[in-house]
Amino acid sequence: MTTQLTLIQIDNYGPWTVTPEPRREMDLQTMQSRLFADIAQFLGSRGGYVFFSRFDNMIAVTNGIGRAGHTALQETIRNRYPVTVSLGIGTADTPAVALDEATEKIQAAGSAQDEGRTEVLAGDPLDSDDDSTVHIAHFDVNDATGKYTDQLNEFDSFIHIERSYASLMEYMREAHGALSFFVGGDNIISVCPSLSPDDYQAAIDHVESDAGVALKVGVGRGETAHDAGYAAKHALEDCRYEGTSVEFDQPPATTGDD
Amino acid sequence: MTTQLTLIQIDNYGPWTVTPEPRREMDLQTMQSRLFADIAQFLGSRGGYVFFSRFDNMIAVTNGIGRAGHTALQETIRNRYPVTVSLGIGTADTPAVALDEATEKIQAAGSAQDEGRTEVLAGDPLDSDDDSTVHIAHFDVNDATGKYTDQLNEFDSFIHIERSYASLMEYMREAHGALSFFVGGDNIISVCPSLSPDDYQAAIDHVESDAGVALKVGVGRGETAHDAGYAAKHALEDCRYEGTSVEFDQPPATTGDD
Amino acid sequence: MTTQLTLIQIDNYGPWTVTPEPRREMDLQTMQSRLFADIAQFLGSRGGYVFFSRFDNMIAVTNGIGRAGHTALQETIRNRYPVTVSLGIGTADTPAVALDEATEKIQAAGSAQDEGRTEVLAGDPLDSDDDSTVHIAHFDVNDATGKYTDQLNEFDSFIHIERSYASLMEYMREAHGALSFFVGGDNIISVCPSLSPDDYQAAIDHVESDAGVALKVGVGRGETAHDAGYAAKHALEDCRYEGTSVEFDQPPATTGDD
Amino acid sequence: MTTQLTLIQIDNYGPWTVTPEPRREMDLQTMQSRLFADIAQFLGSRGGYVFFSRFDNMIAVTNGIGRAGHTALQETIRNRYPVTVSLGIGTADTPAVALDEATEKIQAAGSAQDEGRTEVLAGDPLDSDDDSTVHIAHFDVNDATGKYTDQLNEFDSFIHIERSYASLMEYMREAHGALSFFVGGDNIISVCPSLSPDDYQAAIDHVESDAGVALKVGVGRGETAHDAGYAAKHALEDCRYEGTSVEFDQPPATTGDD
């Protein structure tokens, strides 16, 4: 088993946002963003990655972080925020399968809007003798500044980025069970199973024909999300210097080697 | 003139993120989210709204906030972050037109990746005797928790929300020059010109047939984004209690009255 | 009346920190510091100053900030923190008298550890036609880096700074009803009534003989704490360049002129 | 060797605060407090403690945190703040001796206001086979709410707390080489060598006669600051229930056993 994913769900958040009456939107935005930032620091300094996805539900890659780390995260949030979080952990070669497991563990404990269901911690992290290999692909848009940011109004630039993201996220999910997240600017990070350079080229070709946006991608792997993601960033820099569209930080894995 | 928009652009951000070599992704995520949160607090406590859009470029509704407020925002960011921001201000009845103006003002001062272009403040806020009317529509998904969050894995829930957002953002932009932003959970906020209930129903119908997701919407207006947005939240609560799909906090404007 | 002070008290904080059992100290430190930072941003961007004093009780100079601003501060804290705050407002020429009034207003509503006493907002801000003049004195230690930081271990440097602070705070409180706060490094800021250069020189002489630490001071006045404090910082820079120990940003007030 | 201390020094901070001209005080306060809060989270979630002392110089107890953790802290600050930090590490049975070593390591690399001296990392953490024992004493004031907070104005309450702190910090430093820090409310935390109940009673007696304030203390020990500090908090709760003034979480060490 390779990827360990954690679903982070704010407990009973929807009702809280409108009780006793709707709360100021900018306070909600501030609270959500800072909660995400704190989780990013907590997990990030332990080699993990977290993506904000819907903010009330976040998805984290937590290879290398055990049960004690998860409990500590719940505790520090409870001590500093007006909300609490439930955590579900899943592990599998295919990220979507790991997330299925993580999500089911939380769902089994009750609805996201069940007042009595708080601070669930369900599912099992990898054992220290399990294989831990994460594959991260870091995509960006070719010359986004020159083609969009410096040419169009910001919303229209954003529409192009958003289209490429919507197209890529659905393609990678369906073709490979990979999970893709927009992380700001013109950057998309995908948590992937082991894929070939041709698989990545096909994804790029799909987005170009479907959404009209040209992407490139750097791919890395490692024992933690940070290791894999950092290798992917270096590979993406290689694309920039070489003018190529797919680069691996190390030779792609032969089938079955991890 | 009604809507006042401010484009907030981090100066030369792309190059900074990879200089001297790529920075840790979770540090970038933390920095971006906290910068957004601080801007949300600064503008939000003055009646404004800000949306993170691409994080390196954010779009704010700033009716009621003048030049001094914009300068103060630039100063406090410079004093506390490793980056600076440029601001462009535009005003128009149609949000997309206001954003065109705001964006052009910044673009005229140089590229987003021009090292010498920092802390631009361009464009003019509304005068105190100008009409200031903001229209905000707050959409959400009908029973998102029951249909998605408690049923599907989190990424697949997110795909549905994302599809509805992509569909709505493009429709509202093209049909009305409105700017729509995902704000977390199953919520989308649109900054709109004056529109009729039929216009909103048509948007909802479009998303249902295009993306298969059922939305409802509360609409408000006011002198500031907060006033309009807060009225919209109350109208959305009315939808919830009445089982309706479009509610205005007050009778929709007769053509031409604002 | 000149100085407007606001006492900010976290409601029922002591019991919360040990319920249901003691909370992690570093979480408490984080929560307190961020709450203070958020209040500093909120008030600071409106011309106010806040000092952390005991963290569970903070003292703010709020000239220019009315009832609506105070209510907005309470709302944004309630929406984003696990605690709430009560606010008491007092106004007087002498800061200690203003604080007496502010404190009594909160005490009259119940004990700081009364569970039922939350979000008190008591006392009256200055009217817009009242005189609003704040006097701020900004002290620092002569050559603190050369004499302490680069010579002693950090705790022993800190002991010298702390001694000078303890000596100054008691002297200024007793002699003039002024309120003095350590603000980091070797800096102390005093909120003062109208005082003469001789009064300040006497304070510096007292600290030198009592605690053996040589201070200098810049003094400013203005309609808000920021205006006065910023003028004081410039006056302190004048001390640095001139080698003097007391500088006023403008000629000291003739008795009675404000 | 038992206690491992890290001195955290913001590089060239004084000059930065007034370049090119003085920065807004509330921005400095916000930046300092958030930097402290981030360090508290980073070290705290690894079992460490940090005290803000002068804010531009902070003192941390870092038993259990190695060189890699220190480097990671420097990196995340550099990526998110406009300032950088230097770190000096020292280890000894007596906290003041450990801090001497930590401070000398940084001073040897240059002045705190030397522009060219940035991100020093000097000194050696404990080896994994060294003894790691931290002693933490958590003091508070008997009935501070009833005697001070609910009776006096906030500044006068603060003066009493401050007096007790000044008295205790100097006594513990001179008598035992212990380092004591005010942590908010009526709480003081001391990092101590191994001391007897009589030693603590003598400290309390000294403060009562010197400053007129009655303290009590809980004492704990552990392999990390958090373990020791958490035990101390529980012991302090014991004082509260028993009405005693000195409690150890476990029987005090026989001389020489750690």
UniProtKB/TrEMBL annotation, chains A, B, C, D:
<comment type="similarity">
    <text>Belongs to the archaeal-type GTP cyclohydrolase family.</text>
</comment>
<dbReference type="InterPro" id="IPR029787">
    <property type="entry name" value="Nucleotide_cyclase"/>
</dbReference>
<dbReference type="Pfam" id="PF05165">
    <property type="entry name" value="GCH_III"/>
</dbReference>
<comment type="function">
    <text>Catalyzes the formation of 2-amino-5-formylamino-6-ribofuranosylamino-4(3H)-pyrimidinone ribonucleotide monophosphate and inorganic phosphate from GTP. Also has an independent pyrophosphate phosphohydrolase activity.</text>
</comment>
<keyword id="KW-0342">GTP-binding</keyword>
<keyword id="KW-0378">Hydrolase</keyword>
<dbReference type="InterPro" id="IPR007839">
    <property type="entry name" value="GTP_CycHdrlase_3"/>
</dbReference>
<dbReference type="GO" id="GO:0005525">
    <property type="term" value="F:GTP binding"/>
</dbReference>
<keyword id="KW-0547">Nucleotide-binding</keyword>
<dbReference type="GO" id="GO:0043740">
    <property type="term" value="F:GTP cyclohydrolase IIa activity"/>
</dbReference>
<protein>
    <recommendedName>
        <fullName>GTP cyclohydrolase III</fullName>
        <ecNumber>3.5.4.29</ecNumber>
    </recommendedName>
</protein>
<dbReference type="InterPro" id="IPR043128">
    <property type="entry name" value="Rev_trsase/Diguanyl_cyclase"/>
</dbReference>
